[in-house]
Amino acid sequence: MTARDEPQTPALTARGLGFRVGGAQILADVDLEVPAGHCLGVIGPNGAGKSTLLNLLSGILRPSAGTIELAGRDVTALGAVARARLGVGRTFQTSSLFPTLSVLENARLAAEARHGTVRGFWHRPRASDEATRVASEALAAVGLGPLAARPAGALSHGDKRKLELAILIASDARTLLLDEPMAGVNTENVEPLTDLIGGLARQGRTVVLIEHHMSVVVGLAETIAVLDSGRLLAHGTPDEVIANDEVQRAYLGQAL
Ligand SMILES: Nc1ncnc2c1ncn2[C@@H]1O[C@H](COP(=O)(O)OP(=O)(O)OP(=O)(O)O)[C@@H](O)[C@H]1O
Ligand SMILES: [Mg+2]
Q1: Fold of the CATH domain 12-87+174-250
Q2: Which of 30, 51, 64 has most ligand 1 atoms within 8 Å of its beta carbon, as the pocket-test mutant?
Q3: 210 CA → ligand 2 middle, Å
Q4: Pocket of ligand 1 (CB under 6 A)
Q5: Ligand with the closest atom to the CA of 52
Q6: In angstroms, what is the span from residue 230 Cα to ligand 1's centroid?
Q7: Please, where are the H alpha helices in the chain?
Q8: pTM for this structure?
Q9: Coil, helix or strand at residue 161
Q10: pLDDT tens profile 5-20
Q11: Which of 133, 170, 192, 246 maximizes the CB count within 10 A of its CB?
């Protein structure tokens, strides 16, 4: 095998991932691989375990079985903060912004965290100028530059979702875990947000995207994982997943 043919280490790998709480098996036997710069779409009915999977990948929850690797490094034992330092960033199903802080301040906090700046009595203007520059660039990348001075809480749903993406850009996250980024967003904003996420992947970021809009998932994802009752029903290209008999049975009567 030549160097060119050698398979690249995936950016993100889950092996035999399981999560139990009390007597309930929330997730079981989930195996996934996401190459760097690819988007994995995660679909499945309500309660299938999609957000739980993101919580396990981001380190918010500890798996009760299995392992998680980032670029070949086993991070199963690391918590969310340590994984964030390794470039994992996530958004939540409901907005997690600081509503009274300005749009710019929200993005700056992410940039400051990346640069390790601690704001205190001895304010360090150089580090904070750098954070402002990084934050402003991130806002420009998502088209929120003109709204930088607004309180984040005053933004529309669509703009809040854009700000969450700007925060991930400002924090220099390389692996983006996005939990329903289109939730509550007006139809006319779905396409710009889809383009934005596609652009982040094209720049080499790895994306795991939970999304109910099938057209968004099919348009963005190289591979799709279908979760059903905590199990991986199918994992493959959009065409493979749509053609999968089990998926067809589970989604019988629903447009895929
Ligand atoms: N910490 C927990 N303790 C008990 N049950 C939990 C916990 N976390 C998740 N669950 C349960 O696990 C199942 C999966 O939840 P999860 O939020 O991962 O589903 P989801 O696929 O994201 O659903 P939705 O599409 O509604 O967002 C649900 O039945 C939920 O009630
Ligand atoms: Mg969820």
Answers
A1: Rossmann fold (3.40.50)
A2: 51
A3: 8
A4: 21, 24, 26, 44, 46-52, 93
A5: 1
A6: 9
A7: 50-58, 80-85, 103-115, 125-141, 157-170, 187-202, 214-220, 238-243, 245-250
A8: 0.89
A9: helix
A10: 556 899 999 999 999 9
A11: 170
Reported as a single tens digit per residue, the pLDDT across 119-171 is 554 555 555 688 999 999 999 999 999 999 999 999 998 899 999 999 999 99
**Residue length, the chain?**
256
Q: Six-digit token pair at 146?
A: 């003109």
- Find the largest Cα–Cα distance for the chain: 63
Separation CA 246–CA 252 (nearest Å) = 10
Q: Which long-range contacts (CB under 8 A, 24 or more apart) does 16-24 make?
A: 16/65, 16/66, 16/67, 17/53, 17/56, 17/63, 17/65, 17/66, 17/67, 17/68, 18/63, 18/64, 18/65, 18/66, 19/49, 19/52, 19/56, 19/61, 19/63, 19/64, 19/65, 19/230, 20/64, 20/65
**Residue 128 is encoded by which pair of tokens?**
């904070």
What's the 12 CA to ligand 2 centre distance in angstroms? 20
For the CA of 61, the nearest atom of ligand 1: 1
Q: Are 192 and 8 in contact (CB under 8 A)?
A: no
